[in-house]
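Weekly sync notes, structure subgroup
Attendees: PM, AL, DS (notes)

Item 1: joint prediction request from the bench team. They want all two components modeled as one assembly rather than separately. Inputs as received:
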Amino acid sequence: MIELINLWALGGLAAAAAPVVVHIAHRRKYVSLDWGAMRFLVDLVAKRRRRLLIDQLLLLSVRIAALALTALALCRPAYDPGGADGLLARRGAVAAVLLIDDSLSTNAGRAEPVFADQKRLAGAYLETLRTGDEVSVLTLSRLGAAAAEPVYDLEAAKATVAALQAGAVASDMPALFEAGLAQLARHLNPACEIVVVGDGRRDGWLGVDPLRWGELRRRLGADALAGDAPVQPGSRARPRVVLLSGPTRDEIGNATVTDVRLDRALVPAQRPVGIRIACAHHGAQPPDGALLRLTIDGRAVAERRLQIEAGGTAEIVIAHGFPAPGSYIIEASIEGARDPLPQDDRRAFSVQVEQGVPVLLVEGEAAAGVRGDLGLVAAALDPIGGGEDLFAVTRIGSAELGAYPLEDCRVLVIGDVPALDAAAITAVERFVVAGGGLLVAPGPDTDLELANRFWARGGHGFLPAGLAEIVQPAEAATPGSMMIGHPAFAAFTARAAESWKAGKVRSWYALDPIQSRDKEVQRLIELDTGDALVVERGRGLGRVALCTVPLDLQWSELPHQASFVPLVRGLVAYLGSAVLPPRNLRPGDRLTYRPLTTLADLSATVEGPPGTALTLTPGVWEGRDALISEPLMVPGAYSVRETSGSRVTRFACAVPDSESALEAMVDDDLAPLSGVDLNRLSDGAEIARAFGQADRRSIELWRWLIVGAVAMLFVETLLTRRLARAEQGAAAAATPAGAAS
Amino acid sequence: MALLPDVQEQVLERLGRIGFASRQAVESVLVGQHRSIRRGLSVEFAGHRPYQPGDDVRHVDWQVWARSDRYDVRLYEEETRLRATLVVDCSGSMGYAAGGRAPKLQYARMLAAALGFLMVRQADAVGLATCDTEVRAHLPPSSTMAHLLNVIAELERTEPGGETSLGGVLQQLAGRLHRRGVVVLISDAFDDVETLLMALRHLRHRRQDVRFFQVIDPNERSFPFQGTVEFVGLEHEPRLKLDADRVRSFYQQGLAEHRRRLAEGCHAIGVQLETVSTDEDLSMALVRALAHRAGTARS
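Output from the run, pasted for the record:
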């Protein structure tokens, strides 16, 4: 049986028709001329017609054959006499793509990490390859990097595997397969093998979108079995998948810090902040005598005994006050757990402690004190004034907004403003998309039509939803449900609704369901009538909240309620809490630092966990100049220090919380790949048996076809040279005859 | 009568510039080859030979007998007028022209006119026959200038047409030539060689000295065409669409073979064959041909 490896090249056979086409075109394009010595032409046609025809056909055939053979050679036909035995018999030279799972969990192991087993298995597989086989080595942690070309140097491939180290990224087996299939397209050899070298942990295979697995199954040729002509396993249409994972280790359990967060969206200086540390345990035997230690910028500030049940979770809250505004690293670590995966026993978190967060209040007319549309909001945010507190408030009239430098603000609050001019609307749009926070509270002065047309724009503007009519029921409403747990409502408890009972709302804007994108809009507070009171939507890098009543006393008694102050402060803090570029990163992310000055005046150094060396290179982030590092590989704390000043910015790279469960994979976990030519091998001897005894009987024919094509070209040269020689001979014979006469 | 000024300008005046040697060569060729062995008024001593029984005793040279006691007979030759017939082929193939050159027939006309003028100037008689498949026109030889002008006028009237059948025409012409003379044949000779040679033999048998000028266009030798060419015959042959590059060698072989056979046949029967090309200067071609003939005659 002959198989065409590069089936797509079959179209090249059309090139074989080129000589015929050229011949016909040549024949159709002619000149006509009168000729005296016709008797010689008539004679030669009568005598040599057959000879001319044969010469022409011969030359045409040879040229067609040369092109056809070349096209066929590009198709790389392989002859398989059949009868190859063995489960993993290879047909022809191997194109092997090694996909090495170097996720965080591959660090697990008491004596040595699982990753060492994986490298041995990969080495054993490479031993089964022969000269001429192609190899690519891809690791999960380097999927984002540019893919290298396949190599034929097996020793180099072995050295590459030997030099690999376990990473810190989260498992993503579908992504690994997708990268492997993409890399396979770069290979030329016919026997295609995708070799996944994993740690045998089941979590990497679970929890993936079934549609994604379905697409992978199709690309791996699972449907090829269902066709009329079954595709050979190991072909390009149905690559062989080999899963290499060592024997399951009997681990006693693994404790991990799954989350570190603060109970405030914005962290003020010199005030106690609750640091919530979530821990989890996987396995049967809980840690005994383990401690949870909290460090701030490397200094231990608290230590608690970790009490957690086997397979359970625990949350520990530690109050801490940061002395001054600035960038801090909080790191929680479990000490003394003696579990097989120490890398997930600690987690870092970057915090920006703020003071005087600039908030711009925009009212219909500029006012002072508690007067004006946002006077009560200003009092709630900055009761003392002067910006010494968490917020520094500035109040302007709506007419001044277009010319105001919004890049100096973190949060913008628009009160009962009748309308905004075009420049102001554009400035607000840019501000939000670039990461700013916006709170809009329209009131009776707001022009409904203009707001819907220019602020909401059918759901495409900065307003989270369009405004419908003003609702004025006979009986006033009160705030009803509230999204407790939302970062904006950290100060509220589950009984917060009780505090709003006296807060009568006499009028409010109903939201226009047509001009709202319900899936993106989140209702934070609802009235007891079911209408929304506060909704929120993300836009670009920023967030926008819409309050359906003005934040003064015109339509409601809300500002008179005790909850008004924490509500306003919570909302504004939440809207202004975005720290950009992000400082809490994951392995594989790039550290991005945006300096206050221009890049030309700046040089900065990075300090990371021990053993890491990072450099920052100038780049662009969201259209702005920034210093960007290569992808982070090691979890932990990173500090960027400007050499020209004392500014230090701290970043945290946290371990993925999905890598801590070390439960072994079972065969059922591979169900998403049903139908794929999947072979699971677990030790070197098994690999050698599976591949070493397989006889490669397939013979590639392209070399012979190339030789044939070259031979045809040689014959063509001979024929044309013979014709040319005959022509020269005739010319030479004709010349003496003329001269003799 | 446009041909005469052309001949005068392009041939005769240039022959005048060629010099005495060339003119002498021309004249010696034309005259020296046609001496009569008959006695006449204008006699010239030709030599002696031993007396044989039957010789007229009046021709015995007694002075020789007195000096050497031998009976030798005096021999005389009569210098008489040359009777030349110019045979011009005006078949269709003679109308071929290429590259801005004159058609072969035009070249043949010029050649015939030049020869006629030279011969009449030497008091020789010149006649003309134009032909394709048959003799189109025939003017018997005469040595008067007025007759020459008639010859030239006839040449000017001649247009190419018809098929080549030179062999038959020459056979027909041979029957009309009763007296010894010269036949100057001007043609491209694109005819069957055997038939042509047979006719030439017939002319020779009729005591005609034959000089054959084969007129060829340079393209007919080199066949310089490329790609696919549709050849349209000038003598009503079927059209042929051929790859010129592919058939060039075969065509040139065929032409060379035809010329070789013609040259060998002419040499065998004593016909002087001269090939002239239409890109060749007519006067130089004339001198070359006549000088070659003179050299052959002397040797």
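Discussion: Residues 16-42 of chain B have pLDDT under 50 and may be disordered.
Action: AL to compare against the crosslinking data before next sync.
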